[in-house]
Automatic annotation (TrEMBL):
Domain C2H2-type: 13-40
Top-level taxon of origin: Archaea
Protein name per UniProt: C2H2-type domain-containing protein
Taxon lineage: Archaea, Methanobacteriati, Methanobacteriota, Stenosarchaea group, Halobacteria
Pfam families recorded: DUF7128
Length: 44
């Protein structure tokens, strides 16, 4: 599930599985459908 949060005056969309944050809800939902719930293999 994608969680909406506000940080630094902007709305962010956070993947509840791994915690990765996106500035675009569509990107967050696309990521979530492919998320394996592990820490991302790249730096945030």
């Amino acid at each position: 599930m994608v969680e909406e949060t506000e940080r630094d005056g902007m709305v962010w969309y956070r993947c509840e599985e791994c915690g990765l944050m996106f500035d675009d809800e569509g990107d967050a939902r696309q990521h979530e459908s492919n998320c394996d719930a592990e820490e991302p293999s790249y730096l945030q």
